[in-house]
Specification:
- It is a single chain.
- By secondary structure, this protein is an alpha/beta fold.
- The protein folds into two domains: 120 residues, no CATH class; 139 residues, no CATH class.
- The chain has eight helices and 17 strands.
- It is flat and about 65 Å long.
- The protein starts with a strand and ends with a helix.
- 35% of the residues are buried.
- The mean pLDDT is 84.
Length: 345
Amino acid sequence: MKKYFGSILCRNGYMSAFNTIYKKDPDSRVFLITNGDDFERAVFFERLTNNLRGFNITLFNPFYDDGADGIYIENINTYILSDGEYNRISPILPGVWEKSIQIVGEKNYTREMTRQILNLKSKENNCYKNACEQLKKASRVREKLHSQIPLNDEKLINYINRFCSRFLKNTDTMGKGIIRMLSSITPLGIHTHYDTLFSSMKHTFEFNDKCGFVGSVFLGVVKDYAMKKKIPLMMSPAYFSTDIPQILTLPTADLNIILTDDNHKLPFEPTERITSARFVNDEGVLFDDKIKTLLSIENHIIENAVLSVYEGRDCRFKYNNIRSGFSNEDEAKENADKLCERILI
């Protein structure tokens, strides 16, 4: 089983990757899932996951928790995707589109309940907007960090050229770049689905960078090279920006490249590791008090963003609790079982 985030919050706002998750295959079957509160959705997708044991499946997580809001069943080329408030996928894409499946039937809330739910949803959205603003601030701090680091451009470019020649020279081409989001800001901090990629790749290359700048340049140039050569590419953006790669996967090269720092380390030993210090003219600058201060400010801002996401999820829990008297988890399980029977025929 593989896991990805179907959506993230970043400095540019909310981003859904469902249209890159979906492979635009005209032979695929696609089921859109509608309705249901968070409790019912969690029960529905958990039941589906249990029923599909033994199949090669991929789960897509929402940005705010570890639940699932989408499943891809590789054995039978079938998607089960949530078409809810945050994730939407266009039904004009190719494929055999099935009628939308409701997790539960329609519900009629009282006027007072509706008012409370709408107020909490408004607060939730404001929390997420605040998180995005915090990530914009973190990006500006990182830009200041970059201006303080004397990068040896020639040395870095020469290394990138040798790296591409070593790993990508004889790689199969005629592919394209797609986004598979592995890292995301969650209510519990920054989380990354490392295990999704690294168990299947022969080479795992770690670029450790205290400030993120040199590694971002490295991954960005390698990404541009792969796209120019039409080498199949999977990119996971950095948690604060969709413009900056944090993880690159090149399946035909059997290669993962991961950008790490002192706060976010790999839970396993990579095949190879390199540090940013070798490409900096003055390594001592990485330990300068000004650099340390900027890093501390950046980490504090990201902590505030995490707190905002946590407060947003708290609003979600509150309005789901208001709706809990109307929740029908038995119906959600029953509809999940019916959907399984339908897709496995």
